[in-house]
Design goal:
Elements: E1 11-14, H1 22-31, E2 42-50, E3 55-59, H2 72-83, E4 89-98, H3 111-124, E5 128-131, E6 136-141
Parallel strand pairs: 4-5
Antiparallel strand pairs: 1-6, 2-3, 2-4, 5-6
Helix pairs in contact: 2-3
Length: 153
């Protein structure tokens, strides 16, 4: 048996976010009120910065038939892939409010969103992910979120 170690590098910001992505991070908070989260009260916003300068946003959209909803991250990534198929994703910012209050700790993407990010990396290359919390923001590469990615190719 051989033991191996996995190391993930990330940056932590206290009560702020990366200056380089300030506009992108502010955009996330503008779109959160557009989330349709009537069942959970957990509203999520996402904003993507593309290499052509376009910012694409998305929010979670719930459904009474729970699996039929979609997360904010996938809403934005799928729209960007459909509308701007040649554009490369440079960064994705994510924030959430739980019943109208921003959690102190950052919110991380679910497994399905991480897999969609992995597929996006295959198409356009790795990108920064900024996970915003009230007290703490974390930034890392999308590839670090799903180190043993499902990939049949």
């Amino acid at each position: 048996m051989e033991k191996k170690e996995l190391k993930i590098d990330y940056h932590v910001y206290r009560k702020t976010y990366p200056e380089k992505y300030g506009d992108l991070c502010r955009k996330v908070f503008e779109v959160i009120p557009h989330a349709y989260s009537v069942y959970s009260g957990f509203s999520v916003g996402a904003a993507l910065l593309l290499d052509n300068g376009v910012v694409v946003t998305g929010t979670n959209q719930e459904n009474a038939a729970y699996p039929s909803g979609i997360c904010a991250e996938r809403t934005a990534l799928f729209y960007a892939g459909s509308r701007y198929p040649e554009a490369r994703v440079e960064a994705l910012a994510i924030a959430a409010f739980d019943k109208g209050v921003q959690p102190e700790h950052f919110v991380a993407p679910c497994g399905a969103c991480r897999q969609v990010m992995a597929e996006t990396i295959k198409r356009t290359g790795d990108f920064d992910v900024i996970m915003l919390g009230g007290e703490e923001t974390v930034m890392l590469k999308a590839s670090a979120l799903l180190p043993f990615v499902f990939d049949l190719l």
